[in-house]
Amino acid sequence: MIRSLISEIKEFKKPSFLASLFMVFEVMFEISIPFVMASLLDQGVQQRNMNNILFYGGLMLVCAFLSLFCGMQSARYGAYASAGFAKNLRRAIFKKVQTFSFENIDQFSSGGLVTRMMTDVTNVQNAYQMVIRICVRAPLNLIFAIVACFMINAEMAMIFVYVTIFLAAVLSIIMKIVYPLFTEVFEAYDNLNNSIQENITNMRVVKSYVKEADETVKFKKASRLIYNMFMKAIRVVVLSSPAMMLSMYASFLLISWIGAHLIVGGQLSTGNLTSMFSYTMTILMSLMMFMMIFVMLSISMASVERINEVLTTKATIVSPENGIKEVADGSINFEDVTFAYTDENGDKTHVLQGINLSIRSGEVIGILGGTGSGKSSLVQLIPRLYDVESGRVTVAGHDVKEYDLDSLRKQVAMVLQTNVLFSGTIKENMRWGNKDATDEEIIAACKIAQADEFIQDFKEGYDTMIERGGSNVSGGQRQRLCIARALLMNPKILILDDSTSAVDTKTDSLIRQGLATSLKETTKIIIGQRISSIQDADRIIVMNDGQIDAIGRHEELLATNAIYQEVYEMQTQEKGEADEN
């Protein structure tokens, strides 16, 4: 688990090494100060030798300044290396997410992925900086100080060995308890981020229904839950503090007691006892650092596991080796296709069963069916956004699994009812369909999609800035811009998934006329709730409960299919009532 994250250090290995190296030098100079101080007291102060006082005093200053310099360099390189590591880690997560299929993305909530890229990576960044600095400093300080104590007096030095063993046992028990608690905390963070994202994205709906107070209460509950879970973990972690204080005071008392007897017996000098007290502080400070490391690693290990979960997840849909790069035409075949969605627990929900369908290149196909009948699931199999459970889907005579994914999807343009626009100008959004599209090509596509007229009404025209998600244009305008963007791909297959639901019937008719004249060789699949949107199609497919109920032209279905008849009669009646009003 750790190895996959360490591989992202990459170009920051050198500053990481330098941070640790300078920390080693800092510890060496720092540990030498009490030794020099003992000589200053015993050979300088007590003997009233000014030369020794000046020499050892100057040596102490040199060691102190060198320790300070090395500490500053270690901090500098440590901050640089940890920030770079976090940058690489976020890039790796983002790059990995881009390879995910819809099935993979369904396993992670959007809030969960945001938490991993922000909060979890920050935790790992802080932990890494601590590892290359404090995790070097603390053990070296501890080892050098204990060795120095043994050199002064082995009997007193054994005190620190027992103290270290005692604290190690206490911290191990605490870490075993708090690790699962921090894992639960970050899962709660996922839910909180999901709630925030949902609220901000749908702010217009929240305000329309005057639900600000309810959403605030909902947020407070989620936030309070995280607070309570953190406090539960912290209550366990703080138990390390009394253990530390007990060790500290016990060490001072024992050293004072034993040291006093040794000085009286002539077995220990005053300078050595002073040095022992200095090393006692060094050892106890090192143990306190270990406590800090323990807390940070307890938090970061939960984050490491969550990040590793994303990095090690294998994309369920990948391009085959030497996949087919060219889509010859827009013919499509479904051969005994069965498809099911799999949730995060591995449970399957079947939405398509026994689908057999043949679509000729250049044909216009309409699809009609109730909510949950499998219309969108059917068309999402064509660009291989999902893979079939059984059977197969072919495009231009080849199984979609044989195609290079990028090549296939560039030839299958999809326009969804909820398609979004991105921050930038209208031109920049249009060039998502074709990055090399000229202004003339953009205008031509927008005219076909009936978007040019309202774009020209904007003060900045095609240079008008679109806010994130296209929130500054209406639903109908957003749909028309998305259709134009898809047309710029010049695809072999064009799928309109209820993508004219927000436009009026006249505009809908004009869009269909434009598509008929401009993309004659392109296979067009139109999912519609209004029969008027699909009645001119070469064939209409009626879906019901994940199966094809009927296929035929408008007149045939009107005469033979009960579902089609019912929808037609309802919509005709509604239209008649609207005309009367």
Fold blueprint:
Elements: H1 2-6, H2 13-45, H3 50-99, H4 102-107, H5 110-132, H6 134-152, H7 154-201, H8 203-208, H9 212-237, H10 240-264, H11 270-311, E1 332-342, E2 348-359, E3 364-369, H12 375-380, E4 390-395, E5 398-399, H13 405-410, E6 412-416, E7 424-425, H14 426-430, H15 439-448, H16 452-457, E8 465-466, H17 475-487, E9 493-497, H18 505-518, E10 523-527, H19 531-534, E11 539-544, E12 547-552, H20 554-560, H21 562-580
Parallel strand pairs: 3-10, 3-11, 6-9, 9-10
Antiparallel strand pairs: 1-2, 1-4, 4-5, 7-8, 11-12
Helix pairs in contact: 2-3, 2-6, 2-11, 3-5, 5-7, 5-11, 6-7, 6-11, 7-9, 7-10, 7-11, 10-11, 15-17, 20-21
Descriptive tags:
4-stranded antiparallel beta sheet; single chain; 12 strands; 581 residues; 64% helix; 6-stranded mixed beta sheet; alpha/beta
Kindly state the percentage of residues in helix.
Answer: 55-70%
Measure the end-to-end span: 67 Å
* SS-based class: alpha/beta
Main pleated-sheet profile: 6 strands, mixed
Helical segment count: 21
Q: Rough shape?
A: elongated
The rounded Rg comes to 35 Å
Low-confidence stretches: none
**What is the overall pLDDT average?**
83
Question: In percent, how much strand structure appears in the residues?
Answer: 5-15%
- Tell me the strand order in the biggest sheet: 6-9-10-3-11-12
Number of strands: 12
